[in-house]
Amino acid sequence: MEKVNKLKTLSIQKNFIFNLAYQILNLLLPLITTPYISRTLGAENIGIYSYTYAIVSTFVMVGSLGIATYGQKEIASYRDNQNKSNTLFWEIFLIRIVTISISILVYLIYIFTNREYFIYFLVQIIFLISASIDISWYFQGIERFDFIVIRNLCIKVSGIMLIFILVKDSSDLITYLSILAGSQLLGNLSAWFYLRKFIGRPKVKKDNIKHHFRETLVFFVPTIAYQIYAVLDRVMLGTLAGSSLQNGYYEQAYKIVGILVSIYTAYNIVLRSRMSFYFKNKKHSLIKETFNFSLKVIIFFSVSMSIGLFCIAEGFVPWFFGNGYEEVIILLKLFAPIIFVMGLSMCIGTHILTPCGLQKKANIAQCVAAVVNLLLNYFLIPKYLARGATIASFFSQLSVLIIYIFLVYKYIDLKSTLLSLFKNILAGVVMFIVISNISIGLNSSVINTAYEVISGSIIYILVLVILKDYLSIHSIKWIIAKFKKGKNYDNRTYKNLH
Fold first, then answer.
1. pLDDT at 307
2. CA distance readout (Å), 166 to 43, 46, 128
3. pLDDT mean over 408-430
4. Are 25 and 156 within 8 A, CB to CB?
5. Other C-beta atoms lying within 10 Å of the C-beta of residue 286
6. Distance CA 134, CA 147 (A)
7. At residue 431, does pLDDT exceed 90?
8. Rounded distance between C-alpha atoms, residue 336 and residue 428, angstroms
9. Measuring CA to CA, which residue among 28, 321, 23, 258 is closest to residue 158?
10. Residue 456: which pLDDT band, with cuts at 50, 70 and 90?
11. Buried b vs exposed e over 396-433: b needs ≥16 C-beta within 10 Å?
């Protein structure tokens, strides 16, 4: 007899907040310290870090297969069955330990046979060790993102403090890498203290291991593709451009884009668990309703952030990064549209393609994108350097989105989505005009950038309200209702997010 798991899950709103915090925390350490590190280490050392970490990330990716995505999906599907989820956890974790161990062995062979940047590579082996014990996918599957955030908070803050205390000049790159890697390792170790509340003694069925391994390979394909157009860009920059400076510029621009993308990445990861549960239980009406609501959420965030980033780049970069990073201004403007494209493609992938078992078809899109990225990088980087890599990234992501739309068109409420897109773009254009005018004559400073962001956000939301945008109006009503005790906002879509 199957044992029912009386596991408490959090509402989607709360999970979104916690996972948003988690995603930001993963990027918080480099973001908060970026102005200091960019000045202390310099663009060349940042380039060395970018190049070596890209290679380390490749080994982490290969060793991890598609376990994180597959594990979250499977745990979410069987979260109400304690015996099943317990067995699933140990079987999937066993595969992760074995594959990461093999990856570490190959990595050691690589760094001992390729002596350039040897010491930097050796320090970063900690990232591989950390990946072997990462079980965040389990907590994502049971929709308890609060545990992930809580365990990282103190460790991340401690890491930031250590950077400011120990990293003093350009010779401290190794110290910087050690703090980054060590923080991640301690964060992953701490998760095991929470695990015992949900998981019992190890249970493994040998017959299931082969099945899980085959399935992780299916999810491994998009991971490879993502690595190609998210990490290999930096490897190819270091090889084809022959300059650590170009890698440094690209790394800093991509870091800012990553922070913005993390906002809807948090939302998408939360919904992947809930949508996996819906598909498993054949809740078809909820699937379509939730997906189309999510499209509106992603459009709202991605359009505003894309146009907003383009507007503030010129005033933001000088005070944030310091002198010598003027090229990052151009890169941020070129990167801006990718925020919108990635938002929609990630929404489609996490809401529909992964939960409903269409990952193999989605892999075709990822493979096409990888080829597009490689070819464009090969031809554009030698001539346009980091700008060429940025352009290649955009078109590779665009190819993913186009194919994804063809795969899930039957789930999309086309009229409603296009109307929402039109209203958000119109609001974005008005925001662009306003920010462009108020930024004339402003110096580059924290206060002026904050002024631009706040002014632009108010204009953007105000225009959407005037246009009677569904998401904006109902979000405001929901927030007002939350502040009024004893009143509940009567809207089916918002209720379904609990």
1. 94
2. 19, 17, 24
3. 91
4. yes
5. 18
6. 13
7. yes
8. 13
9. 28
10. very high
11. bbbbbbebbeebbeebbbeeeeeebbebbebbbebbbe
How many other C-beta atoms can be found within 10 angstroms of the C-beta atom of residue 261? 22
Residue 225's pLDDT is 67
At 338-396, the pLDDT tens digits run: 999 999 998 888 888 877 777 778 878 888 888 898 899 889 988 888 899 899 989 98
What pLDDT shows up at residue 22? 64
CA–CA gap between residue 97 and residue 64 (Å, rounded): 9
Nearest C-alpha neighbor of 22 from the set 191, 226, 229: 191
Asked if 277 contacts 79 with a C-beta cutoff of 8 angstroms, the reply is: yes
176 within 8 A of 167, measured Cβ to Cβ: yes
Per the CB < 8 A criterion, the answer to whether 310 and 336 are in contact is yes
Q: Which amino acid is at 151?
A: R
Q: Give the phi and the psi of residue 440 in degrees, each rounded to 5.
A: -65, 125
Radius of gyration of the chain (CA): 23
Q: Which amino acid is at 2?
A: E
Query: How many C-beta atoms surround the C-beta of residue 117 within 10 A?
Result: 15
